[in-house]
Amino acid sequence: MSQKKKICMVGSYGVGKTSLVARYVRGIFSEKYFSTIGVKIDQKSVEYKDSLVTLILWDLYGEDQKQQVHMSYLKGASGYLLIVDPTRPETVDVTIMLQERITESVGELPFIVIFNKKDLKDEWDMEALKKIEDKGWTILETSAKTGESVEEAFYKLTDAIIDSD
Amino acid sequence: MASTSGKPSKTSQKDKISSETPQSMANPKKAAQDSFKDVASNTIDTNGDARSSGSDNTSTKHLEVPEIAAEDQFDFLVGLLTGSQQEEIEEIKEKIDDLPLFVDRLSEALPEAIIKRGDDRLMIQAFTPVVQKTLDAATQGDPDEFARRLLPSIRRSIRMIVEETVDKVVTQLNYSLEHSLNIRWRIEALQSGRPFSEVVLAHTLKYRVEQVLLIHKETGLLLNQVNHEEGSSEDGDLISSMLSAIQSFIQDSFKVGNQSQLENVRMGDFELFIEQEKDVVIAAAVRGVPTADLEHVLEDATNYLQLVFDKELKSFDGDTSVFEDTEDTLRACLKSDFEVPSKKPNPILIAALSALGLFIVLSLGFNIYRGQQWRGYINTLKSEAGIMVTQENRRGGRYEISGLRDSYAKDPTELLKLHNINPQKVTAKWEGYAATDPILLEQRLKATLKAPATALISVDSNRNVIFKGYACENWSSIALTLTRMLPGVNQVDTSAFESVQCN
Ligand SMILES: Nc1nc2c(ncn2[C@@H]2O[C@H](COP(=O)(O)OP(=O)(O)O)[C@@H](O)[C@H]2O)c(=O)[nH]1
Ligand SMILES: [Mg+2]
User: Fold this and answer.
1) Cα B255 to chain center, whole Å?
2) Is the ipTM of this complex over 0.90?
3) Chain segment A7-45, per-residue pLDDT in tens
4) Which of A110, B122, B277, B306 is the least crowded, having the fewest Cβ atoms under 10 Å away?
């Protein structure tokens, strides 16, 4: 049996969403589309237990002063990765705010919080991260630069999604 | 919903009845009916009691309740509630229990019930195996009979298919002929180095649906896809989601709401035609400019799939295997149209076809004419004395004949000329034989005996040889002996013949 799941990459601008996806996916759309409509779509197949799960990854344009994440892009998603850049404490607040908005507009979905840029762990603001750790959410540390735990992040999310089905 | 499984305690049933609103009485009523069976006999008794005591003191009916044993309270209550309707219930119960009566009633309602739910997918699902098994049984029983019944309808569709195919072939023929003569395109092909067929395609293709995507609306996930070219494109998943994203973007950015739905999107060489339903979207990648009927085809397909797969679309969880059955519907959307410059058939084609037709008619006619000539010749031979045809054959303008021929019979080769048949085309094999035909017999006798002028020899129709006149004895003795020995001779009549002594 093969399955398809829509998954969203959510997080503040510059946290590494695009870099995480770019590590192993195939895309056909030009950057022009991406910047115009604020979403980049890629696909990745994951071997999950005995079956193949095709993840359709929606990389949503960052949340900054200028641009808000379109919540309608999350419609029909099976789950999402919530990405934080621990070297920039302000992204922590954006992350918490985004999570609230998502549950408000599309309900509770499986998600995993990603502390990206693990290769720069010396520069992480541990104090700010505590705010997220206190929430009791599932957290994974990755580095899009070295590739550390990137596969694992998508696999864990797939696992959480299929568990919740 | 209905009573809980197992036997509910009667007290709780009673509570239920008293607390239920009249609208939801349907279910407890059913439960009450069920309990008729096991308590039927004592129900009547209790009811009788209840009724008689009730008639004594109608206002305090409810006060008597505590006096009845706890197990019977429910039955009592049923009797109380139904009271005067008890007889009606008994009547209804009888009607239901009376099977023939029930079947009668049901048969009245059945057609209407089926019509009412005929479009229901569940109904179709329920009927399909029955119909299939019936068909199986019918085909196994007497396949010939079955075929005989089907034939009229099949014949019609076969005829339609044949007509359509012929139509297509003529169009295609017309089209190829038209274009194979187009020198300009030949030159263009030579100059550009592209194959001629490609140049023709580029000039004449009005439009072609290259790919059809079936998309789940809520998730934007691809459910199924079909392609004009063999093999599947891997981009379907991405295009589907991209369309879904564009749709969301438009609705969000311009706050246009669900009413404004994406219709067409330009993508490279293609135009994506988008047809939306409640839960499903069909996107057709079209090269060229389609005719209006394409939109209807897409619309019909979308409506149909929404209807048939309504449940599956609503409960879709990422498993696309149930949507494999949409393939045929999607394939029907892979339409294309070519430019056929003149609707009238090409004049060259007409000329060619007419020439061909004329040739066929002429050669057919000629063949028939030749056949008749040959028949005539054979018949003449057969009626000719001293000729027996044993074998004859006409094939590919050549003739073969063989048989027996008396050397005194007419020459078959001479007869060929009479029938306008070229002797050079005829291979004849004639074996010699002595015919017993009176005329030939006479000829042969005359030639062999060399009779003197005074003697006359004739053969009658019974092959009797008659000698008349006179002749020298030395001739007549030999002649008569020879005649008697000749095969085919019946009797020799010499009554009018005289043999004389000669020196
Ligand atoms: N050192 C390091 N840099 C990263 C990592 N992931 C992303 N970046 C950098 O962070 C910047 C923003 O990344 P991008 O993927 O565009 O972020 P997005 O806006 O969330 O899509 C880029 O310069 C990336 O090279 C990481 O794991 N380690
Ligand atoms: Mg990005």
Assistant:
1) 53
2) no
3) 999 998 889 898 888 875 655 555 555 555 678 888 888
4) B122
